[in-house]
Design goal:
homodimer, mainly alpha, two-stranded antiparallel ribbon, 11 helices, DNA-binding
DNA sequence: GAAGGCATACTAGTATACAAGTAGCCAAAT
DNA sequence: ATTTGGCTACTTGTATACTAGTATGCCTTC
């Protein structure tokens, strides 16, 4: 019989391989693990001090997100960045966030406004300190916050799942080049419109902001050609 | 070393538990397996004639999609329909499909038009024959086709993954009530706008169409209360 | 010398054995 | 009669053993 307590009991899930998942995801995202690199289950299991079973589940999930490629009886490899997937991710993200930010501009409360201002200040600090990794996370936090303000917190989970490939490009673009100042500026504009309750302006700013990545993709895929999938001959 | 052939070789993947996944998904969707029902790994494994290992991967994926709830050391149960998830699914689907159908109306070719007309005719046939299961699939096929015409075939995969909870309501609504005629009518209107290249009208029709589900949710959740998550007390 | 076949090492897929934790029942004590 | 304690059956989580298939390097042969 179904436990009626299921709704109110907080299950202490067993995220044994949870940190392994996060570590691998991060390492692939940041390029510590480079596309094409072999990551056998046995090696990961041994390194983490666990058996292959939980490792397999982690890899299966990473494969679903497009981070690794599993070839049966051959091996598991860090997947190359697929440009087509990047463009699809951008399309979906733009579509969803441009709609949610309109709602955010309309539903804004004073408490939300304070959170947004705090985040912007933190970004400025990371920028001046040159901490690109911190900035990367704060960028995500701002967008997540906007989605939450829109009253659709679950949407961010979907975006998070979809933008995996986009994130890899985003990370590379933060490493080299002078994009962070531009992004902070755009974020400030974005938040400004939201604070003013200007839904129309906020959407336009978001659209422009999310398309900034386009300006870097070509250069990134040229400089870091080995990170990207080879185009069909 | 990474096999360079990875891109062009077609890997004969080993979808051993693939049919089990489809069967379970279908059975939960159609209500053959009812929310709260216990589905132990061992039972499923024995029934399918395989070991627990592949069954676990299937269940893990179903859990990610919100079809089952896995409680460690307790059991695996068919998940109840979460109304909040249904509304989130609808929001995302509406946002994405309203944008893609605009593109579909603009990118339409003659071949696409023929496919759309064929699908509509098939729907009409299923309607008259009272085959609601076939209609369910044709409904999906039409929407998938529109997304493909828009030039974003990958988007449908995302929608497919998101609308799981929505589908359960959709299936229930097709079982009882006289909604199929309404939906076919809406599909015809939709396709009509696309065929006419009327992006504006197509989007409006799509929005109205995807919101039709709202009219049934309240009744469905009342009639089939045992399918839905109990609201917080 | 080159090309083809074969053996070996390594991989993920699968099956099975073991461990840890939960819920429900039953008995005993109050 | 009620409550509380423990015990048992059952579940998922994890580890390990085994299977099957692939790629590669070496050896043979032409």
């Amino acid at each position: 019989m179904p436990p009626v307590s299921a709704e109110l009991r907080l299950h202490r899930r067993a995220p044994i391989g949870r940190e392994l998942y996060g570590m691998l995801r991060r390492q692939i995202l940041t390029g510590v693990l480079r596309p094409g690199e072999s990551i056998p289950e046995a090696t990961l299991a041994e390194r983490a001090g666990v058996s292959r079973t939980p490792v397999r589940e982690v890899l299966r999930r990473l494969a679903d997100e497009g981070f690794v490629t599993i070839i049966p009886q051959v091996g598991t490899y860090v997947a190359p960045i697929r440009l087509a997937a990047v463009y699809d991710s951008q399309f979906i993200r733009e579509t969803l966030e441009c709609r949610t930010i309109r709602l955010a501009a309309e539903n804004l409360t004073e408490a939300d406004a304070a959170v947004l201002r705090t985040n912007l200040a933190a970004q400025q600090a990371s920028l001046e300190a040159g901490e690109s990794d911190a900035f990367f996370d704060q960028d995500d936090a701002l967008h997540a916050c906007l989605v939450r303000i829109a009253g659709r917190p679950a949407i961010w989970e979907v975006i998070q799942g979809v933008k995996s490939q986009l994130d890899r490009v985003r990370y590379l673009s933060l490493q080299s080049g002078d994009w962070p100042p531009v992004l902070v500026e755009e974020h400030a504009t974005l938040v400004g419109h939201v604070l003013a309750g200007d839904a129309e302006g906020a959407e336009a700013a978001m659209r422009a902001h999310l398309r900034t990545v386009f300006a870097t993709i070509e250069r990134i895929s040229r400089v870091n050609a080995d990170f990207f999938e080879k185009p069909a001959p």
